[in-house]
């Protein structure tokens, strides 16, 4: 039996484009002699469709799309994923389903049992977990078809009390197929391989796994669909961050063969390389799926905006990136020069708009109220917010989307101005710590200097008052980021972090700053997620709370 | 047996204040001769603690607080709610538990079985549902203790496949006690009474129900704890929106007696009265629990800012409200006069800052880019954003929190400026449709004119260009709000709404506007929730989606 795995880029709620993609893929697989073509979890509507799933009309549109797809399945079978109504009046109204379609009809329906409901996942919000498990017989082979998380319960301290494969294995299947929607994080590929390999070995079955690729606002799906033989050995691995279809043949002894040269990755990419490719896809799909082409950003001469500018140039083409230099009286000469050098190196568009007359106008308007009170954060933020007003005016006039350039370290401790530099349609590096931003800059410069060397080596500064340095208010970034990883990603207590060798006072200050900044992060743009714990939908915190503040 | 129900206002993560409140209440109940005092669900840590629950230290602090509380329970028993570790390695790491404490020790632990995970609820994100149900014997009575949602499965199309009381009733309990964290919506009190009454009648048992009171950022808990006899008749109802403790005695025949005059509500409040009281509590607790006292807002002369100003005056005292008049060249004379009249009527503080020189500065800075392009939304938004920069500068200088004044109708269709009038620490009327805002204004003026009559009767306008009216861009608010209720609260399709008699073109335009504005709503402040479906954590939508756009 020849099986095609189709790793495609869907668009949430775009039934026309998703259905066309799936049908085109079915026709192509048929021409290539496949018996079965397998698509990803919830491919019909895109993932995550979130509360669109609560609209009956949306579910009907999924059903209509499935009927169109089914009509194509003559002389070829397919597996698609879609939400379907739960026929039992008790429990949630929907199931997260896979259809096995053959001869133009739905031959079997598999419902997902293990519903992820942590981090960015909300599946128990919509779906009733399945409690019935049946294999599917097709062309002399018995298939154990499961959906994503259904195989993720072999770990220590599992999140669920059931394991669908423990039931299915008793029916003597020949192969496991798993359809998934597993989002990217820089460490997720190896975790995925380990867990899926463990399943193949544990159940002594070959395993074919197909994932989404493409970004849906903040979530980036990295593809990397996988094939294992029955010993758990990785037999094939599809490319990451791009659409791909490949063909596999099941042998009678539990093995897998395939015709094309193996795409198995020999040298895995570093975290930073993966983050780079993830962010490029994230920017590209955000613009493409929103129907926009042109990005704008403020270029300060600092490393954050430089890295975002270079990423946008790569994702959208430099001709579609407008970099705006917005100097104030506190901007240093090197900042302007560094920004200009970057524009030249990258070949993007640029404009310069000085903000001094604007901030003067604000300050004189406020003179009766502020009288002779000293210059402080109020005046600092006026600069940052004036820049945002200018950039947003350019967006409104010319149809750009503003790219936010805040990094994860500053987003964590609230070192940014709400409605100022925290503005934007999408945050490009909001899940990238400052120390990683430096690594990204080095990676961007791997072949030639795009980001000026001076931008990389000079001490970071917001330049909102004379001679300001980030380290005036914050620990060195090496220290700050190390503490933040322990707190945000590992959820350690202050005592545990101090025990690792960090200064008591510094740790307490950092954790307090993180918790005090929840109200700021609540209002920031969606952040492209590249880590296992990004700010945004995957980290849900009270604003008015007292813990650690 | 004499039972005290303590309806208290907790603060998330504020273990010291929550524990002190609970202990004070235990001592008071003991003095009043109670055998048992019952507190609300998760009272130890506050509700919803959200991802604080993922921090082991946070769970340890809950345990430490429970130990302190237990030490007080000599000659009196109590029921408290807290998260506890799940001892089974399979499943989620926590349970949503109730401790029955007697003689200084935890005598019984009840874990919640039905975990709400819809709208604003995320309980399956943290908790493993219970599958074991046991009554508690205390002083000759057998108590069926359940937690909130555990009793909410008697409705048609239930969300869960189990019903804890069906097991507990077989153990012949004498009384049901339910501890809850049930947030306010204008129609939720009657729903609560109906469902709990149905439980009392169905199981032929008296039922004591204790709820949270107080606001946690966007969620307002309204109290209104309830007592039913075994026929399902409402025996007592605690006050709404305020702390309260009351005492009840179980009789041997399944009845309930109580000493104080009944507080049973004879005439229920209208939706608008409830919304008014909810918003007052919401504002008050947001400031109090954040440690702030002073609010600021921009006063345009229009009805939205007038209503918010009056609500803030009531919640915080007019001396703690700073209203800023920010006229532009498009502001009408009546706007300034109406705003000044409101300030006078209310007795709040005010300042006037004209924005024309600021917008001029922006426009001349952008002249090279904008050249001779016509005045459009770019210049309109510059006005709105300049006002936001001024208000935020006042916040930064003097320590105010900015109140957002957007209503639900304009938030729905995106009729507002991101980083402009959509700014603020908390959105006061973001869950109140424009037609309801008018009703609120009339209610605020019930005893005397606070909001000037002209503000109520003039046609709404953003005044960002000459002679602008809201109806230039939007349908009349009566029509708009009626369509929005159908779409947002009832999740009807366009076809279903059109069938109700609305014009095809108008319905499609409104639904399209709602979906296109997701990116704006993503970045708005938390919104005080007063309806069953507010924007914010209870409505989770894709930004880059294609459905209905």
From TrEMBL, chains A, B:
Its EC number is 6.3.5.1. It comes from Mucilaginibacter aquariorum. Keywords: ATP-binding, Ligase, NAD, Nucleotide-binding. It holds the Pfam family CN_hydrolase. Catalyzes the ATP-dependent amidation of deamido-NAD to form NAD. Uses L-glutamine as a nitrogen source. L-glutamine binds at residues 118, 182. This is Glutamine-dependent NAD(+) synthetase. The keyword Nucleus does not apply. HAMAP family: NadE_glutamine_dep. InterPro entries: C-N_Hydrolase (IPR003010), C-N_Hydrolase_sf (IPR036526), Gln-dep_NAD_synthase (IPR014445), NAD/GMP_synthase (IPR022310), NAD_synthase (IPR003694), Nitrilase/CN_hydratase_CS (IPR000132), Rossmann-like_a/b/a_fold (IPR014729).
């Amino acid at each position: 039996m020849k099986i095609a795995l189709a790793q495609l880029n869907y668009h949430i709620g775009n039934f026309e484009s998703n259905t066309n993609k799936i049908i085109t893929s079915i026709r192509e697989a048929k021409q290539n002699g496949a018996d079965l073509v397998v698509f990803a979890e919830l491919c019909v509507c895109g993932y995550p469709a979130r509360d669109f799933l609560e609209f009956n009309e949306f579910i009907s549109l999924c059903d209509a799309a499935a009927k169109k797809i089914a009509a194509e399945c003559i002389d070829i079978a397919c597996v698609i994923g879609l939400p379907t109504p739960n026929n039992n009046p008790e429990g949630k109204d929907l199931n997260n389903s896979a259809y096995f379609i053959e001869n133009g009809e739905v031959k079997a329906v598999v419902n997902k049992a293990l519903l992820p409901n942590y981090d960015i996942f909300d599946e128990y919000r919509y779906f009733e977990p399945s409690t019935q498990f049946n294999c599917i017989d097709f062309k002399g082979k018995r298939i154990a078809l499961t959906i994503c998380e259904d195989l993720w319960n072999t770990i220590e301290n599992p999140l669920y009390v059931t394991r669908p494969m423990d039931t299915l294995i008793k029916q003597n299947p020949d192969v496991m197929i798993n359809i998934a929607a597993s989002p990217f994080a820089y460490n997720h590929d190896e975790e995925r391989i380990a867990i899926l390999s463990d399943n193949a070995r544990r159940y002594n079955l070959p395993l074919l796994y197909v994932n989404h690729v493409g970004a849906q606002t903040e979530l980036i799906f990295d593809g990397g669909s996988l094939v294992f033989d029955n010993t758990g050995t990785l037999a094939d691995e599809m490319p990451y961050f791009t659409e791909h279809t490949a063909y596999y043949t099941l042998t009678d002894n539990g093995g897998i063969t395939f015709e094309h040269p193996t795409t198995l990755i020999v040298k895995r990419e570093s975290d930073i390389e993966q983050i780079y490719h993830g962010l490029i896809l994230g920017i590209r799909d955000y613009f493409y799926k929103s129907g926009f082409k042109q990005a704008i950003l403020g270029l300060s001469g600092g490393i954050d905006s430089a890295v975002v500018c270079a990423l946008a140039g790569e994702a959208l083409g430099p001709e579609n990136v407008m970099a705006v230099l917005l100097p104030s009286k506190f901007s240093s000469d090197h900042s302007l020069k560094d920004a200009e050098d970057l524009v030249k190196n990258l070949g993007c568009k640029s404009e310069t708009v000085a903000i001094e007359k604007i901030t003067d106008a604000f300050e004189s308007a406020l003179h009766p109220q502020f009288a002779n009170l000293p210059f402080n954060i109020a005046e600092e933020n006026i600069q940052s917010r004036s820049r945002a007003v200018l950039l947003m005016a350019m967006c409104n006039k010319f149809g750009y989307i503003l790219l936010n350039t805040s990094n994860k370290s500053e987003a964590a401790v609230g070192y940014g101005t709400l409605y100022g530099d925290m503005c934007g349609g999408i945050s490009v590096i909001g899940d990238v710590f400052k120390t990683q931003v430096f690594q990204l800059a080095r990676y961007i410069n791997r072949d030639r200097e795009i980001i000026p060397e001076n931008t990389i080596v000079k001490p970071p500064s917001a330049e909102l008052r004379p001679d300001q340095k980030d380290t005036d208010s914050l620990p060195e970034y090496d220290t700050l980021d190390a503490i933040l990883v322990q707190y945000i990603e590992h959820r350690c207590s202050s005592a545990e972090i101090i025990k690792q060798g960090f200064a008591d006072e510094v740790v307490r200050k950092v954790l307090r700053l993180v918790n005090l900044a929840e109200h700021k992060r609540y209002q920031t743009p969606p952040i492209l997620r590249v880590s296992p714990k990004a700010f945004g939908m995957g980290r849900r915190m009270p604003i008015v709370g007292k813990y650690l503040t």
